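Researcher: I'm preparing a figure for a lab meeting and need a structural model of a single chain. I don't have an experimental structure, so a prediction will have to do for now. The sequence is pasted below. Please return the structure as tokens so I can convert it later.
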Amino acid sequence: MTETMTPAIPMPPIVFGTDGWRARIAEEFTYDNVRRCAEGVAQYVLDQGSRERGVVVGYDRRFASEYFAQAAAEVLLAFDIRVAFAETAIPTQMTSYEVVERGAACGVMITASHNPWTDNGFKVKSASGAAAGPEILAALEATIGQRAGDRPPTRPFAEAEAAGLVERFDPFPGYESFVRRTLDMDRLRQADMRILVEPMWGSGAGWISRLLGGGRLGVEEIHRERNPWFGGVNPEPIRPHIDEALGLLAGGGFDLGLLLDGDADRAGAADEQGTFIHQLQVMGLLMYYLVEHRGMREPVVSTVNETSMVGRLGERYGVDVHETPVGFKYVGPKMIETGAMMGGEESGGYGFGMHLPERDGIYADLLLLDLFMREREAGRWPVSSIVQHLHSLAGPSFYLRIDVHAERATYPQRKERLMADLREQAPTAIAGQDVVRSLALDTKDGFKWWTEDGSWLLVRFSGTEPLVRVYVEATGAERRDAMLAEGELLVRGES
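Model: Understood. Here is the structure written out token by token.
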């Protein structure tokens, strides 16, 4: 039986950022608002004439994610849309994989990715498996806005499941077979190495160990248990959140570390000394792997806050590079449009044309392991030496990012004011070097400046959290630190 809810007080607008809609649990992220998002998805599916294809629904390990996912499913079911529902918490990209495998109309994933533990979120995947692009998100927002005064209809989950309209799924067996099309997993399992895996208490826990287990390769995984508090850190695979793992690596006994974020769609790595391999270096390593070891020459898609090494590697190997705004809602569609072999963004998200046009931290980590094995066979070892070899080919990359937090209530006003200030009073020099090029981001949420030596500074407002991000990629460590300090002063209004 479909339950029709009575009209209620008009609800505030819901706006999808660079990667879905995220908000604080019980404040804005409520069952009512999740149902509103699901109604937007349902209407989109109906408008596309795709009801019979169904929708995939997944969820991560955050607080109450499975219950928010069920609430979303109940709205879809009320519109007679069949639902494939994850048996347990899964990595975000498994939703994308299931959408592609099933030929589903789209996918819904309940996750706030790397956000603080207080948050949760609602992501949408297109029929291609890529993050829903701006046109899809605009359609969702329009439906949500038009029906802001009414509560969506729902159909009880248990009743719909009993009627055969809900199918529970486990993506692991199919995903393992899918990965084997492009990776020799048996070879990886027999590697004479010992690796440390850090899933950060997230939904990627157990996946790499299970995929690589049963051979000579030694895999030790930490923080596998569910902990919606994420041990008190943001589940983002960057420092300082991963310092415990780096300390274990520094203690010896491991050849490398592989890192995941809270929903496992972002990848990270560290070398045998416990030195963090930052996200821009990982982008360079993965591109180098594809062109040097796999002989691929298709285009690469890179966001405006990604590494300049991509351009230099593109020139060296004859690979076209396409730049997009921040967010895989731009990267994924551009990958499909250009037939790209990979796409990446500064946050540690990497997608691959031979795999999925969406971020997959597990697959990216497996590719890194394959790269390190191949480089070892070529005589370059340990991992720290491989990173240095990358820089000998692609140039320097001294990168760092800081996040300047803002109050949620005043964040929109602060953004508007700071955007005006940076436009009208843009720096002409940074850390002693003249600015030779500037760029106002197409998304109207920040600015980027290049100095004489090719270093760059970018200031950008986050689309998923109330904070301003300051990014620097420089030609040296001292220059990086000086540029970052000046960027922070710009944001705080102290310059």
